[in-house]
Amino acid sequence: MRTFLLMTATLVLGTAVVARSATPADVIEARQTSLKAMGKAMKSSAESFKSGSPDAVLIRANAQVIAGNADKLATWFPAGTGAGGPTKTGAKAEIWTDPAGFAKAAGDFSAAAKAFGAAAQGNDLAATGAALATLGGTCKACHEKYREKD
Predict the structure, then answer these.
(1) Domain count of the chain?
(2) How many CB atoms lie within 10 A of CB 5?
(3) Helices 24-50 and 125-146, packing angle to 10 deg
(4) What CATH number did the domain enclosing 66 receive?
(5) Residue 11: what pLDDT?
């Protein structure tokens, strides 16, 4: 639960930074903070399933972090916040040159995140695990096309 509260506070702070200041560096920093928090939630959930004894409470909390921010993803990449600026970003130019494709990828992620969130609220860990796998597939598809390799 402590991890959930920390991730939630981080996401709220990141959103507040964007609202307070509209510089590209601030937008990129807030975006990266939010994406890292969702990535940690994904990783934590996957590790819980891999442990052989999934922690339903942890997975539910992680699902809330992810699903609660899923619709915001497409808004985190306004024009002027790509590569070439003063802040290092892994965002590829295709996010801005293929806005329809990126919007579809963000929509696919959002739908999968909401499905994962709904599944996590139930008591069927198999369904929750399947929803997490589907969500992971949307992450991978988007990263392959719209994110630089680390």
Answers:
(1) 1
(2) 10
(3) 140
(4) 1.20.120.10
(5) 56
